[in-house]
Specification:
By secondary structure, the protein is mainly alpha-helical. The protein contains five helices and four strands; from the N terminus they run H-H-H-H-E-E-H-E-E. Strands 2-1-4-3 form a four-stranded mixed sheet. Helix 1 packs antiparallel against helix 3. It binds zinc ion (ZN).
Length: 245
């Protein structure tokens, strides 16, 4: 197969663009900003879980507080009733002693309930402080998460822009290529490796393998417009210099 030197030069350009597009694709799937964002999301979720646990504990203590309060209120009403009975004087000695005994028991019961209530309320206060800490942490994490998201979006947009620029350069270049040369190039690329490589000294620029003396002599002897392939990887071996050189 033959291809003008200018066509070979365009192919070299195309292979460079494809290498750049491959680097861009790799960058897109290995963004450090994505890793940072995912890490932040995990931290944020963990803080949310901790917050939920503390909230449930506070609710549980609230329920205990109202239980104690209503028990205390009931005891207080019993005490009140007993006291007014005592005050009314309409009782005999036996009833009086029973009432006094019950009142003493009720007062002890009230003290014990009030102690328990105090304990629960102290614990609740500790949890409230913990809740405030967790809320502060989650607020900070939300801000971090938002800026991580923004950094990720920016990185994605930059990569996408670069991909579009290189991709349209590729389209323009492909349009100028001889279809047969382009087909050969694409077929070679379909194997997974580069479609073409520049001959660099004794090495193939596509597979980096050193070409044997005999093969090299045969390649050097071929006409400039002869399309030669790397004997190792099959890539189109280009003996031209890049545009800028
Ligand atoms: Zn090669």
């Amino acid at each position: 197969m033959k291809a003008e030197v200018a066509q070979q030069r365009s192919l070299l350009e195309l292979s460079k663009l494809d290498a750049e597009l491959a680097r861009i694709a790799h960058r897109a799937t290995h963004l450090p900003q994505r890793e940072a964002y995912e890490r932040m999301k995990v931290e944020h979720n963990a803080a949310g879980d901790r917050l939920a646990v503390v909230r449930i504990a506070v609710e549980d203590l609230d329920a205990q507080v109202s239980r104690f309060e209503s028990e205390i209120e009931a005891v207080r009403q019993r005490e009140e009733r007993d006291r007014s009975l005592l005050r009314s004087g309409a009782t005999d000695a036996k009833q009086l002693s029973d009432l006094q005994h019950e009142l003493d028991t009720l007062i002890r019961r009230q003290t014990s309930l009030e102690d328990s209530l105090l304990e629960v309320m102290e614990h609740r206060e500790e949890l409230e402080a913990q809740l405030a800490v967790e809320l502060g942490a989650i607020e900070a994490l939300e801000a971090d998460l938002a800026s991580a998201q923004q950094a990720l979006d920016t990185a994605i947009a930059e990569i996408e822009q670069s991909r579009q620029v290189h991709s349209s350069q590729r389209d323009a270049l492909t349009a100028t290529l001889d279809p047969a040369l382009s087909t050969l190039y694409e077929r070679q690329r379909a194997g997974g490796g580069p479609g073409a490589g520049q001959l660099q000294g004794h090495r193939c620029g596509a597979c980096r393998i050193e070409i044997g003396r005999g093969e090299l002599a045969r390649i050097s002897a071929a006409a400039d417009d002869e399309v030669v392939r790397c004997p190792e990887c099959g890539a189109i071996l280009l003996r031209v210099k890049a545009f800028e050189q």
